[in-house]
Records
---
Amino acid sequence: MNDVNKLYELWLENTADNNEIHEELLAIKGNDEEILDRFYRNLEFGTAGLRGVLGAGTNRMNTYTVCQATQGLCDYLNSKYDSASVAIGYDSRINSDVFSKQCAEVLAANGIKAYIFPVLMPTPLLSFAVMRLKCQSGIVITASHNPSKYNGYKCYDPSGYQMTDEAALETYSFIQKVDMFKDIKRMPFDEAMEKGLIEYISDELVEEFYSLVMQRPINPEICKSSDLKVIYTPLNGTGNIPVRTILERAGFKNVSVVKEQEMPDGKFPTCPYPNPEIRQVFEVALEMTKSEKADLLLATDPDCDRVGIAVLTGGEYVLLSGNDVGVLLAEYMLSAKKEKGIVTEGTLMTKSFVSTPLINKVAAKYGCKVVDVLTGFKYVGEFIANLEETGDDDRFVMGFEESYGYLIGTHARDKDAVAASLMICEMAAYYKTKGKTLVDVLDGIYEEFGIYVNRLYNFAFEGASGMVKMAEIMSETRENPPKELAGLKVLEVHDFEASTITDTETGAVTPIELPKSNVLAYTLPDGNFAIVRPSGTEPKIKVYITGCGKTKEGAVSLAENLGDAMKTLLRIG
């Protein structure tokens, strides 16, 4: 606690010129618990960059932690390149625009050219800008779908995907050497603009991105003629203009926007947890449907890299999971290509290893191979970059993860809810011409391959004690692997930190050919599985369950039983 109090006093002494931060520090004077929460650690910089609650302290997102990270990034880039440039994007969150300009000022002061979007933009556009402008890195200020009290800072590789483990670790080593009150260089924004060290990213680049997204439709004629009725919500984020622009250009004429969630607002007044995975974000849209029926409800998260949907079927709106939509997109895109005479044999898709294996069966029907990657879309981006090096990128169809992230094509190296929204609407319009909803199509897939029920459990561990508890749970579970879960024998234990797969019957150990990660997975009979991992962006432990069965009731029951078994194993809940 003594070191924490010393840090607190140091911040109090050095933030007198920052009223907001200084006043927050004064307000918690003498409150040991509040001081500890703000100073017990530094925000970790990893492959997902920084993410944390806005406020004062080393464990908060603020001008000091953001500029410290940027100074470290500058030192890293200047150690590797004779000259460097960085593209910067930001979303609608509180202070996103402020932090982005401060990043540009630090870059400029270190002799690094900063390209910055003049207005908020989706994360996939930042990924595209890094590649298009041939930058050595990229920064996007966003906390994705976290509540409004959060913000974040993500760094990108020159290939347009988020930093890999090695680059993030090296960058972090530079960040740790930066004294945030003495070592940060800054050049006033206007001065840097005059010197050409900061430049706004042009509308032409945005138009180029749009033109590439417009190449994604497989049945463009259906988009132009469709009477599909869509209600869209950008959840007060960056998707409003890009998504509506793309849908309009594709020919969708019946698109309404949720007015309360249309304009950028980092407080997210009608959706405190702006995550398209949860039904609550659709409540305002559902209210609209009482007077304005729609075939499809579409929601993108604040930085517009994730998209969720609800489908009108049987008079009710059914919220589809990220796994559901991934499977539907695979079926539609591959079947539509085959129908058009486009070869699907030898094509490729990627999915995070925690996502549904049902997509493998769908893809195999069309001769498409699905490659598993670790959780984190940077691994999808890296996969595409490797394909590009060998001239095989034209084989890539889609990358997907169960948390509502999709990349259709290779124009970006990160999740893209702009292109995914277009493909989802095209898919819904196509099946509407066949008299089917997306729920009908999904039921048909289940009838063909069996029913897969996926469950995701999130267990929060806030504060310093929470981080310790998470580490203890993972350590104890690793040391004491289960022999059975919900009455099903555990066939294999996959330890991604040790890079081993252990056959529980024979004891044989084989290597995992993926980067190390703090993940444990349990293979069960008949395609069932359970996976546990700490979140890389939030203080949570996540448990992924897949239950398979011939009937929906049986699959649901099995998935729930497996969930209960995992809670018991982890001693949670």
Note: The first helix runs from residue 2 to 14.
---
Amino acid sequence: MKNIKLLFFIGSLVILQFSCTSDSIEFDPQGAISSEVVFTDPAFAETFLNAVYNSVPHGFNRGWYMLDAATDDGENSYTWPASNTQLNTANVTSNNSPFNGLWGNAYFQIRRLNNFIQNYDQLEGTDEVNNRLKGEAHFLRGYFYALLLRTYGGVPIITVPQELTDDLLIGRNSEEEVTNFIVSELDTSAGLFANAESASSTRGSWDAAMALKGRVLLYEGKFSESATASKQVLDNTSRTLDTDYQSVFVTDGASEVIFDTQFSDPDKTHWANLFNTPKSTASVSGWGGTGPTQNLVDQYEMKDTGLLPEEAGSGYDPANPYNGRDPRFDATILYDGSQWKDVTWEFRPGGNAGIQTSGDWTRTGYGLKKMMQEDRNHGDGSTQHWIHLRLAEVYLNYAEALIESGNNLGLAVDAINTVRDRATMPAIAVGSQSELRTRVRRERRIELAFEEHRFWDIRRWGIAGDAEVLTIYRVDMDANGDLIDDGKEVWENRTWDDANYLFPIPQSEIDKNSNLGQNSGYE
């Protein structure tokens, strides 16, 4: 009988996970079978948590655009996604915010996790299995609260399953309280993982809990604590930076990946390849999607000198503007003359993928290469993973935390150089705090491009409204592929509202619970 119930339960979850989203139906796996079975049998418990993992947001499911298209690193070729209609025009309201879905999904998953955590002491597996499952639950609860924190600031901390008889109209906790709760969850998670069986990168782990702790503390300006957490990962992890930067984003099992969402044929795919392959008249043509900006291109240093193209003695040749750059440039960006999918891409005016101002053609004169599968037909479902946490970010989190705390700048430089060394880029030297702040921010921009870090970085650094961030440049090139003057022209002047440093609580939630209050600028 127990096996029959298990098959029924797993079947129900499979149907749920691949036929609907958490916003379209509210289904609590605990309701399918008795809690006695769910929270005693490790197989049921793992399946229960699988439903939560499948609801972790990722960058390939934002609805036709990638989040970096709402930064100075990218521009979406479609006119209608949220990046162009809301985020880049400061037109975010409590009714239309592209993050409105996060609130409901996060609290639905938190309710599931609260159920699990309240009952997990009934598990009848081995200590190693039980500890892993318990650790995963606390990691996931911390993860969802971390998403809420960076998006809305302080939010209600709910740690027990709410019933209709409970007071549901609770107010928001402070940002400090939410931060402390997340840290506590991640510490609890890490402690449980210390004596647990190992699992794949698609599940929580000690590395993931501590890496996320370092990130959250960095975002909240707790630099010394952040550095300590990240250093613990660097000192104790068995993971290493992969030698091939480009392959990290299209190959499951890359050694530096700490936490990711994986996909497979035929049931679990996405459409990143189709949405982001440039539109062209060549044999390969996608929907355009994310176009890197000239702003970003200009930040890639020259490989031999480690200098920006604009700097004296860099070795930059305007007649061959894409030669000799940081190898991560060629791994990330398609440019005029790129060879990809057996096509020579011509982004020059009149070329087979020429820059235009209408349709789905590139607006910037560049296409996205990073994360795109060259060996897969772009018209088929895509299967590359989305990386939530990886080791290179931990090195850069550690470096930034040290720089901002003003301590151990030499160790910060060593961490940055570890990342640069993998890219075969020249080492940087120790400088002032201000100089190193500039270097680590540039390194984050290059190393983590299009992984949804820039969007949050420019907010936590307070520079999202700066003119140089809001002025978007595209390549200025003639029909022969030669740069005109300095090779760039203004494509767009975006607008900004300081309210957008945080996002509004969904109006539907405010209507249900006036005790929440609204973030400043959205009242």
Note: The longest strand covers residues 483-493.
---
Amino acid sequence: MTRKEYSLSAECGYRIVRRLGSGGEGTVYLVCHINTEQLRAAKVLTNIREDRRHELNMMKHLKHNSLPRVIDVLEQSGYVWLIMEYIHGERLDQLALRGISEAQIWSVARQLSQVLMYLHSRKIPVFHLDIKPSNILIRPDESLVLIDFGASIRGHPDEGLNKGYGTLGFAAPEQRKIGGIVDGRTDIYGVGAVLYYCCYGKIPKGAWEQTAQRSWVDFLINKKGRWRHQGGRMLARIIRRCLLENPDDRYEDSRQLYKAICIAQSMSHFYRNFGKTVGAALLFLTALLFLFDSFTKEEIVTAGKRGGTQTAAKMTAETTIGEGAGAETESETENSEMEKAEAEEREYYRLLEIARGTGFTQAVECYERAAGLCPADGEWYLQLMEQVTADGLFDLEEENAVKKLIYSVQENGETTALEQLKENREAYGTFAYRMGLAYWYYYEGSGGKSAAAWWFECAVASQEDSCDWLETAKVLSRIGSYYGMLGNTGADEGREEREWNYWNDLKELWYMYRTQQEDALICYETGEELLSLLIMNAYEIWQQGETREEMTRIISEIKVFLESDSMKDELNRQKKLEEQSAEAWSAIERVFQSETGGIE
């Protein structure tokens, strides 16, 4: 049977390079963006529900390292095309079949639970509902990307599903029932199924029922003899709870799952390294208390009967022997330092998660502590700026809080958090760029443009290689240099040339933002600035060499932007830009109708 191929017209701005694959909801192609020559992934959705179109547009606002960036949603010839970031990586199912290490499985478990925390904690939560190995990509740096939101829903449905969604073997029982109610625990089932597949190389269906009744102590001693130590047993317990049929018996939410994974991974590491020392016994017993909410009472009692007395006796004997042993061995010191580092990392990410879900004052306290733990990690800086600009305003209180955080002197007493971030050039550049945007478009005080221009210069200077925002930062840095000239009414020999450059840089910025699907407020501000320049200086712009066609094209582009989904709730801004568009049209008409304006 010949498979159907789809095409994109040149008007969409993309050309198809090759087919990448297909799934239940559509076919994926590798495409090239014609203007920028950037490679992207385009999924044609051939049988999409009407109510899903708005959800797909909303996906453009999801920003997380473990999610593909959705760039655009196009409609052509009756089909919907989802244009996304092209991810270079290997599918998890292929990696698992080839062979996957314990460390890699723990990494998958942690990253998958982290991205679910992000999705489930949105103001309107997003539930993926099709978590499976083939929907997970592993980048060369082993970071994870969760793809294919074809079955996802936003918000808690008022009623159950009217038909089953998900993939057999990985979908939770409630997904397979007509009228089943889904929530975050449904995705948690998918995590358990993925981890099971990674451990066994097969789908849980059937195999899980056979192993579900085994003691968690014996689980994961498979035919390959993998993980004959506590690490596999602890992971098995997590998998088992994720895969329980009743959602109420699973982890309460993705945050609780993430916590269980972090603790179990730490226990696994130290049990493996200190399994025959006093420290191992103490750590193991302490961790059991933390994990009490995840064990069933029967399992705790059984574990105690099997090894409790022997472990206690062994602890007493080894403690007595070790009392005069003196200083720690070098190996113990190294592992102690490693444990401290891992504990600090766990605390760092815990603080970031808390900050996401709290008010700004409480969030700043979390960022303060996070900065003390990992001052050179770019994640808290970017999350801070995302939170600062979420309401479309960068006020003075927020500015002071940000300055206090980045200029605070760290424990060494010599360098600030920002100075330490500079060692990570890429992260520092991205943060500087975001600071520039905050000052440029959101700042409520005076001098925002000047401060922004300085941050853009810092961002540009920090980059040795090209990146997504570099050209935009260069243009904004140039535009920032024009503002002093614009307020000067005196004679200036180079004024006309700078005004012409200002116009062209604004145009370039507008087209960049529209291509990159930048924040609606940023596009609005840029469009408003372009229209104001046309209203005030249409004649001068024409004299410098601009065509009527290009000036009217800009106005038409802005009108298209006003009709987009991102502006449909911004009625006041829509009205203002519509009025300015009409004034700009009139200004252009006057230029070409006047005697001094010449003929077209």
Note: The two ends are 57 Å apart (CA to CA).
